[in-house]
Amino acid sequence: MTQPFLLGVLGGMGPLATVDFLSTLLAVTPAASDQQQIPTVVWNVPQIADRQKALAGTGPSPLPQLLTGIARLNQAGASHIVIPCNTAHHWFSALSDVSRAPLIHIVEATISAVVEASPTPQRIGIIATKGTLDAGWFQHGLQQHGITPVVPDEVELETWFVPGCYAVKRGALAEGGAAFVHQAKALFERGAEKLILACTEVPVALRAVNAPFLPLTFDPAQALAERCSKIWQDHRTSYLT
Amino acid sequence: MTQPFLLGVLGGMGPLATVDFLSTLLAVTPAASDQQQIPTVVWNVPQIADRQKALAGTGPSPLPQLLTGIARLNQAGASHIVIPCNTAHHWFSALSDVSRAPLIHIVEATISAVVEASPTPQRIGIIATKGTLDAGWFQHGLQQHGITPVVPDEVELETWFVPGCYAVKRGALAEGGAAFVHQAKALFERGAEKLILACTEVPVALRAVNAPFLPLTFDPAQALAERCSKIWQDHRTSYLT
């Protein structure tokens, strides 16, 4: 191994979701001492163009700031890089192309977690930004395993998801959580057995309101953290001297 | 301003305390959007020599790893650097000497917060590592303002503080919190009106056990976060375009 393990986290989208991801990384890593915990370098710079507006064609692209973050994480010695923001995966290929450290994809980590769950659900709802839904990553990943995706319609997104998301971003977790609960119920009513909470603001807010259906959800950030932790645990025997 | 504001956080001591500090930074910063939140780059690498053992002469110095962290944060563009670990401030001068970005001292931020509190206490207890207590930073800072410090004795440190601290580091927050409660009560019984929780593990654990005397405590990490947030708020008007 030429490069010691060091997880680079391209965060800031939003900053609270990034800190939540860092907490999850620690929580899913068995460690008897500080030294056994996963080493990370984190770029948590929220001064970045709005991803939802960029994909809607109503704002500038965040790509220049994302490229800066990737460059700084590589300079800091990251051996692997993750982005705890589903929507930002629109620029995944462009970022992978210029990064020395390999990027780990949040959708791949999530679909693996869904498929490993027992029993595997037949219908899964997806709560996500319009950009993520339009990209179709989660739907495609589920369909490859014979699972039917259930997605919000335009009216639901405008009524519940988008306002909920911006509420979280200004710190109003209870307001955001209440909006996401409406969205979740609509998906359950259309036959979803479980939900993928495919926007990092959503699980933060649903935990804040103690949503009773949380055990029926998959959190892509948690799946990504578990994937990273597993890689670290495979490395740390040789890393710790 | 030649260097845009970017707070460098030299963390990992321990990794949980670092994440707690990042949460506090967000909580103390009024922000109506992601973009108004404080930008940070975080070195959360816990593979660093034990500070308590180094100061007790029973383990290697963490200075080489601290210097690496300072170098990486400067390379990443940090304009200011903080260390959310009281004990690591033993190496503050050595780190300041080599850092382009100025370091903000946790003790100065804390003493300012204590002095600004109204009414100013006459006797303040300090819960800290032996290394921090032997250094005398907090005692000296309090005495300069006519406040009498009340400190744990050797037996209390060995019975409560040290086991509590290592309990937190292995994730046993309730066990650590219970030990710190004993230490706090001893200081209150010796006349302390308030306490400085001068080890970043302590407030995390006391919050986990809902210690009833938390309103009577000063948290240096919180004081440091508030100082950083204030600097950011002074900068952000010119920073945001």
Report on this structure.
The structure is a homodimer of 241-residue chains. Chain A is 51% helix and 11% strand. Chain A is of the alpha/beta class. Chain A has two domains: 7-105 and 222-239, Rossmann fold, CATH 3.40.50; 107-220, Rossmann fold. A four-stranded parallel sheet of chain A has the order 5-4-6-7. A three-stranded parallel sheet of chain A has the order 2-1-3, covered by helices on one side. In chain A, α5 packs across α11 and α9 (173-189) crosses α10. The two termini of chain A are 14 Å apart. The model of chain A has no long low-confidence stretch (mean pLDDT 94). β2 of chain A pairs antiparallel with β2 (40-44) of chain B, so a sheet runs across the interface.
